[in-house]
Amino acid sequence: MKKWLRRLCTAVLVVALVVAVVLLREEHEERLRRERDREQQIESLYRRIDEDLGDVDVSLSKLTAAASPRQSVLLLGDVWRSTGSAGAAMALLPLSHADSCDMSQFITRCADYAHALMGRVLEGKPLSDRDRQQLDSIRTACAEIRQLTGTAIENGDYLAADTVDLGCYESTQSEAAISEYPTLIYDGPFSESGENQAPRCDPGERISAAAAQKKALRLYPGATVTDCTYVPSRLPTYEITLDTKDRGTVSVSVTEAGGRLRSFMGTPTGNKNDPPSDEESEALKAEALGVLLELGFEDPAAAYAQYYQGVAVLNFAPRQEGVLLYSDLVKVYMDRDTRQVLGLDASHYCLNHRHRDLPAPRLTEAEAREAVAAGLDIQAVTLALIPLTQESEVLCYECKATRGETYFLVYINALTGAEEQIFQVINSSEGDLVV
C-alpha cells in the first residue's frame, strides 16, 4: 500500500512539474511575442517617420526650383502633410515626454511654418530669402533626424534617436521668434503659449517615486512597472514604463509636485484614415470627456480635433466659472477602432493650471458682437482667457463667425473692446486646422 502511495505521489509530482514547465514556457513565449510585436510596432513608426521626413526633403528640394506660386503652394502642402504624419507617428512612440518633447515640437513647428507660408503665398506674397534660409535649415535638421532614425532601424537601437540638436530652431526660444510662427495648427488657438516659461500651476505636495508608480498603475490595473526614472527639469517628473497584458508597453509621466498626470501613451489597434462621421466624432468626444472627468480635470470643454493613422487627437480647454482657459489645453488620444482612450498629454495643464482672479467683463455680449467686423455671421459667443505674451493673459469674448464658407474665430477684449486676435478655421479630412 505504501509503495503504491509513493508511486502515486511521484506521478502527481511529475505531472505538476510538467504542467509548471509548460506554463512557464507558454508565459515566456507570450512575453517574447509581446516584445516582438512591440519592437515591430516601434520599427514601423520609426520607418514612417524616416519616410515622411524623406518626403519633406524631396519637397523642400523641389521648392528651391519652383518659380510659380501654384507650385510653391503645392510643395508646401506636401511638406505640411508629411510633417503632420511624422508628428502623429512621433506621438505614438513609447518614449517619455522628456525624451520626445524637443523632436515632437520641432516636427509640429515645421508643419506650422509650411502651412503659414502656404497662406502667405496664396495672398500673393512670394517666399523671402529669409524664408528660404529657414526652409534650408529645416531640411538640414530633417536630414540629421533621418540619419539617427536610419541608424536606429539598422541597429535595432530605437532609443538612439530620442533626441537631436535642432539648432535651426534655437531662436524660437524668444517670444519675438515664436510670434513668427502660427500660434496653432493642430491644437486650437494658443496651444504653444508659454511652452518655455517656468511653471505657474498651483503648487502641490511633492510625491515619492512609489506614489507616482501607484498613480500610473491606476491607469492600467494589473500592469508591471519595468522602469521608473526621475527627470529633473522645470517641471520635474517621474517617467514610468509599464508592461501591460493587453496594451503592450506604456509610458506614463507623473509630476513630482502635486502628483499630476502629465502624459501617457499606448499604441492604436487600427489604421483608419477616412474622415470620421459626425456620430463617430461625438462618440469619441463623449468618451474622452468622461475619462478626463474621471481623472480629475476640471470642467473640460471640447475644442479641436485631428485624425491620423487610426488615432483621433481631441483637444480640451478647462473652464473656470464658464470661462475657457486656453493656456491649460489637454490633448486626448483616442483609438478610433476601439473608441478607447489611448493616451493623454496634459503638459500645458500641468504647467499653467491654477485658480485665476478673473475680472468682470466691462463689455456685454451684445457689445462684443457689435465690435466684430460687419459682414461676419456670428454663430456663437463665449468668454475665454487667452494668452497675449508669455506672462500675460486677457479675458476675451470668443466669437465664432462665418463669411460665406469661411469660418473665423474673433477675440474681442472683454474689458476694452479691442480686437485682440483673429484665426481662420480650415475644415479638412485631418480635422480642424486653425491659422
Architecture overview:
The protein is an alpha+beta fold. Helix 1 (2-63) packs antiparallel against helix 2. Strands 1, 2, 3, 4, 5, 6, 7, 8, 9, 10, 11, 12, 13 and 14 form a 14-stranded mixed sheet that branches. The longest helix has 62 residues, at 2-63. The chain contains 9 helices and 14 strands. Strand 8 (330-335) and strand 9 (340-345) form a beta hairpin. Among the domains are: 30-178, Four Helix Bundle (Hemerythrin (Met), subunit A) (Up-down Bundle); 202-259; 365-434, no CATH class. It has helices at residues 2-63, 69-92, 97-122, 129-155, 175-178, 209-219, 278-294, 347-352, 365-371, and strands at 224-231, 237-243, 249-255, 261-265, 300-308, 311-320, 323-325, 330-335, 340-345, 377-387, 393-403, 406-413, 419-428, 431-434.
The CATH topology name of the domain at 30-178 reads Four Helix Bundle (Hemerythrin (Met), subunit A)
Strand content: 15-25%
**Shape-level CATH architecture of the domain at 30-178:** Up-down Bundle
- Helix and strand content put the structural class at alpha+beta
Order of helices and strands: HHHHHHEEEEHEEEEEHHEEEEE
> How many extended strands?
14
What helical percentage do the residues reach?
A: 40-55%
N-to-C span: 89 Å
- Describe the global form: globular
Largest sheet: 14 strands, mixed
Number of DSSP helices?
Answer: 9
Radius of gyration: 25 Å
Q: Which parts are unreliable, with pLDDT below 50 for 5 consecutive residues or more?
A: 160-189, 191-196
CATH class of the domain at 30-178: Mainly Alpha
Overall pLDDT score: 78
